[in-house]
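Practice problem: predict the structure.
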Amino acid sequence: MTKISAIKGDITSQVADAIVNNASPTLLGGGGVDGAIHEAAGPALLEECRSLQGCRTGEAKITRGYNLPAKYVIHTVGPVYGRENGIEAELLTNSYHNSLRLAKDHNVKTIAFPSIATGIYGYPVEEAAQIAIKAVREFTGLHDSFDEIIFVLYTDYDFKVYEEELKKQGI
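Answer:
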């Protein structure tokens, strides 16, 4: 059975098989989590990302981790809140499911997620946490291939919200 938890921390320092990048559609870096991951991984990550030709909202692509402690980086593009014609929750769920599918395909046993789409994309943290945890539970209910999935939250507030949502969902 997969252990699911939340911690407060910096996703770039997580020792896991894979970390998830809350990426921009170009996959070429940016601000927030995306910029921090690119900076910590080094220039080789940018070079590999250039070869992937971007990523659509809700989809995911995988690269090596380079200078990160993680072997892989899974890049997913979350929805911009209020700008996806009412299907934001579906697209956010897809970001988690597609990231987990790629991880499973690459034999990843431990994976760390940020709070996808809650930064500049404006997704309310409370809604995003509920969707994220539900999506992870759905996937792990069908595929028992992970040892541990960790939500790594950068702020005290986000950590508290995820911790409370984990309790609400019985985790």
